[in-house]
Structures are given as structure tokens and as C-alpha cells.
Amino acid sequence: MSDSNPLSNIKGEINRLGFVSGEKISLLSHFAENAEKIAVAVSCLDDFDTDEDKRSYLRSLISPPSREQELKRRFDEISFKIDEMNREFKRELKRIRFTADAWYSAIGTHTKTKKGKFVKERGVEILFPLGLTESLKSKSPGKFLQPPNMDKDTRFSPLLDTDFVFIPSDYPLDPLSVIAIGEIKKRVSGSFSNADIGHVISFGEKILQLQPRRSYVYVVLTDCIIINIYRVNRNENHSEEYTQFTYNYIKSEYLTYNTQASLTHNTRASLTHDTQASPSRGWRYLVTIIESSPERLGWVEPSLKFGEETVKLVRSIGVGKTSVVYEGIYKDISVAVKMIKKANYLSCVERERAVLEELSELGSPHIPKILFYDENTLVMTPLGVKVNNLRKTDIKNIITTLKHVHSYEYVHRDLRKYNFLRNLDDSKESILIIDWGFSTKNREDTAFAGALECMPDEVLESLTNEEDIVYGPKVDLICFVRSFYLMLHKPSMERVAFDRDGDIRKLAQMMLNFWKDRSKSDVWDNIYQAIEGLDYDKLIQELERFF
């Protein structure tokens, strides 16, 4: 086959070898669809000595795969999908941890290195504030009666992710149960780096954010030779948007029980003479923390009193800009407990309470109901679970509920995926619309709130042009439709929350560009026409076409 054109060569061989018309069509179709394989096929044909071998080779290319080959192909496909799911899970877990860090990091310290440097330079040294333990005798090493399960690993809790924690006996591994926390790091040149100090301090800040009633928390940084102890304190400055913190530190001490025998010359030189004269002081510090009552270490019992009624907090289930949400138990009923982080967010809980109390007149199973409240807490029922996709029945329930809400002149403003939950205690597993703290009255001129990725073009354009935003029912309907689109198609995009730092004009323009080339079809045109006319029934019909 001397022709310089591989396609001509392969066609010539197929004709010369005398294939019947059906085989010839299949072969030509095969190479038309797999042009990159032609050169390889030509080379292989040159290696065969007989025409029979060449015919067998070409027939093998169009023969249906054997059962073994088909099973292998399907196995490979499944393996690839599993690998992709694992990669996606790791990416999502990393994103969650990164987001958690971003939520809780102290303002003005954008990196852990800067935070550690700030603590070293601006933190206040204090004496160890707890009475030292009298337990001075070393005990033989203990051992677990049963090996710890994987669900006991702090690394499997994105909101913890520290090396070790102190929790009360028989309490679950949850941020709500954490009394004190610790991190193990290697020292460099005899001291811990600024990044390591900032890293462990950030864990203390997280705990104070997740336990809003708590004033301070102790954090431990050690390499199992030297121990550093810090106290992170809540500083409620109501003029600031974010919770601020102050920091105390206690002078580094030896941790090892038999210190002098195990320390290197450089390690001894890094500590003072007084420290060396009390070699077990760091060990006593750690044992004191272990032996201290939770309350002595600043922990607050996770329960709330409302008159004669008690609500027990079980675990933290969500964190937002303004509040922390917990699962609670009241008379054996699971409830949602929403606690405001800072006093300057009280208006949010007041607004949500007022809205939910007024909307309770609807008797809707799709709107939470308030059981108890005080100035910074709401206890609501039912307790829902997150949803990843909507069901056909959800479409009618959500839009009909919005129609009734809009008749009360309220606009939710934040109808993103994360504000839809499912009530599994209901036989119908009803959908819930939550987070009414940023809702506003129809046509009320107010500051922007909501998730940028779901906002209608009019709101995004107003943000881009720095114009006033007036909210109406159409905002809710478009927010819901775009949330539905994102759940349905799952495009690759970063969720941009309304409280994110940065140039909101630039972010709004990004979202305008994102939606410009999407949802362009007759179906979507009909959807937006229904929204424009506030035709709730037609909108239900159009969205139900997707099921």
C-alpha cells in the first residue's frame, strides 16, 4: 500500500480483499468515525502475510465484543465513574473546609501566618489561670477497650479538622461538644511557626462561632515535647460586622514527663532557667486541662431554657453569616434552633420571627413554625434535611406557597438551593422554605441580600450600575427558577454568596455573563413569560415539563 493517503490505502485494501457489501459498509463507517485509527490499521495490515489474516484482522474491528470484552468495558466505565466521584468528593470536601476557614477567620488576618504573627505581637501573656493538678505520679499507658471508629476522627468533620479535641464523656464528636482543642505541629529552629500558631488559633475561633453563648476557649499547640497554650476570647464589638477576638498566651513549657533526660541541647536553650527547674509544669498544664470540669474551661451546657421549657441542643447542622443552626430536642421532638452570632444581627431574628408569625396564618406545611424564641434565638419545627434535587410535587408546592406569601406582600429574596429542606417526619416528605430573616415587603427599597448566582438580571444590573434595588414577587420566582436550573443541570460554577468580600459589581457582571447564554429555548421563554405575567399556574405547568 504505497499511496500516501492512509484513507485511500484502507479503502483500496477493503475493496481488494473482497468484503461483502454489508462488511464493506461497516468497515468504511468504522474508519469514518475513527479516523485516528486508520494509520494504525494500515500499519497492521502491512504486517500480515496472507489476505486471510488481513480479512480476519479487519473483521475483528467491526465484530461485536465478546461477553468478556463487554464486561471489561463496562467495568472500566464504572471504575472511571467511581474515580471521578471520589475526585469530586475530595474537591467538595476541600471546598467545604476552605469555605469554613474563610467564614471564621479573623478580619484583617487573611492568612494563618499573619494571624499567628498578630497573636505573637498583640496577644497578652498570662499566667496559667487554672489551679495545677495534684496528680504528679506517672501512670502506665492506657489502651482503648475498642479501637476508635472512623466517625470519631476529627478529620472527618470539616468544621473541626483539628488533630485532637477535648469533649465530655459520652458526648458525640460535634463542635457543640468541644471543650478545648489541640494541634500537633513540628517546631522549626526551636519554635512554632507563625502559620502553625495561626492555624490552631483559627480552630479556637471556629469553636466560638459554633458555640455563640461561650466567651472563651483554650487551644493547645504541641510537638509532644513543648506545649503552648492559648486562650481565644470573644470580643463583642457591636459596631463591627464580624465577631472579633482577643488572644492570651501562656509561656511555653516542657510537656515530657522526664524532661531533662529527653531534651536536646537546642530545646533546653530555647526555654528559661525557671522552666527547666520545673520540668513537669507543661505536663501538669495538660493534665489540669484534662481533669478540669467543662464549665471551668469555659464550656456552656448545650441546652436552652424558655420559661419552664427546656430545649436540648444535639449537634450543629449549619453556619451562616448571621447565625448558627443546631438540631435540638424538645419533648422527644426534633427541632431546629437558630442562634444569632452577634447582637448587631438581632434585626434578622426579629424580622424572621415577625414574618413567620404572620405567615403562620396560612397553616402551610412548607413554612417553619416557631415554638419558642428570645431576643437572639428561634426554636422552630419541623427539622428538615438538605435536598440535592427537587421532585415534581415540590414545584407546585413551592410556587403555590410563594403565591400565598406574595399575597401578604412579602418577598423572600434568597430562594437558593440551600434554603430548601425536606421534612422527613411528614408522610408526604413536604418541601420546606427556610431562612426568612432577609425577607422584605413588596416594593420596599432595601439593601441587597441573596445569592448572586440566582438573582434575576434586573437585580444584577442594578448592582453593576450601583442603582437602588426594589424587590417584588418576580425576584422570588426568577430566583427559584434559576436555583432549579442549577440543581437540574449542575453547571460548573462557584457559588457566590451575598456576604462575600470583593467587588460586588464585578461578581454581578460575572453572573450576568453566566446567564446570558443559558436557558435559551422556547421552554425557558415560556417560563420567563409566565413570571413576567405573575402567572403562577402557568409557571407550575412549564416547570413540571422537566419531569
Automatic annotation (TrEMBL):
Any GO BP annotation: signal transduction
Q: Which Gene3D superfamilies match?
A: Phosphorylase Kinase, domain 1, Transferase(Phosphotransferase) domain 1
Which residue intervals define the domain Death in the entry?
A: 486-547
User: What UniProt keywords are attached to this protein's entry?
Assistant: ATP-binding, Nucleotide-binding
Supply the SMART domains for this chain: S_TKc
Pfam families according to UniProt: DUF6826 (PF20713), Pkinase (PF00069)
Summarize where ATP binds, as residue positions: 342
| GO MF terms held by the record | ATP binding; protein kinase activity
Q: For the Protein kinase domain, which residue ranges apply?
A: 311-547
- List the PANTHER family hit by this protein, alphabetically: OVARIAN-SPECIFIC SERINE/THREONINE-PROTEIN KINASE LOK-RELATED, SERINE_THREONINE-PROTEIN KINASE CHK2
This protein is called what?
9946_t:CDS:1
| Taxonomy of the source species | Eukaryota, Fungi, Fungi incertae sedis, Mucoromycota, Glomeromycotina
